[in-house]
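I'll show one example:
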Amino acid sequence: MAYFDAGTPGQGAAPRMTGAPICTPSKTSFSEFGGKAVQYDTHAVIYYEGDSAKRLYELVKGSVMLYKLLPDGRRQVVEVLRPGDIFGLAGSDEYDCTAETLTNAEIQEIDLKQVERSDALQRTLTRCLTNQMHVLHEHAVLLGRKSAVERVASFLMHLVPDRGGVGCVGPADEDGDDGFDLRLHMTRQEIADYLGLTIETVSRVVSDLKRRGVIRVDRADQIHLNKVCSLCQMTGMH
């Protein structure tokens, strides 16, 4: 789930995408099965909820969010995708959510008829979608059981490569800098819609983390984690 570009520990790091993708593009590229590469601008809608489901999509570059709208206009962001993720699989003839880019994005598109004809592609989809289901289970726990502080802390920690969760080895240098730079690609409203919070609650939690010295807000789109371990302790997983 790539919401930020992440720098290396400390200040002034060159941005890069954070975290390991669920399915690496080199192993799942639809181009090997006759897919077509399409470029999308930031905040372009790939498909709307209710559109006819005719294609599957693989995110090659950039970030995409999937969301559902309630009749009164409230929005729930159900998933934020990163390179290697596959989306557009529908349980009926219509897409059950809307897909919108968060950044400029490159996407491989493939017709569903081609999927039906390829056993190799079906095996690839099964592996990738099983892994993505695990991510959705974790998000269900976040929405159902975690406090506002734990949700925001979990959101930020997920963006730090190789830190947090089972098997975390901690900082490379116990006595050194444990800071990390994150550049935001989601608005606070989009973050709130993903975490099941109001924008006011997200802003209040960010201000509280800043006051407690856990983070530093450098710009509206850039946050510095002063000590990753301190933030990790606030995720509810310890």
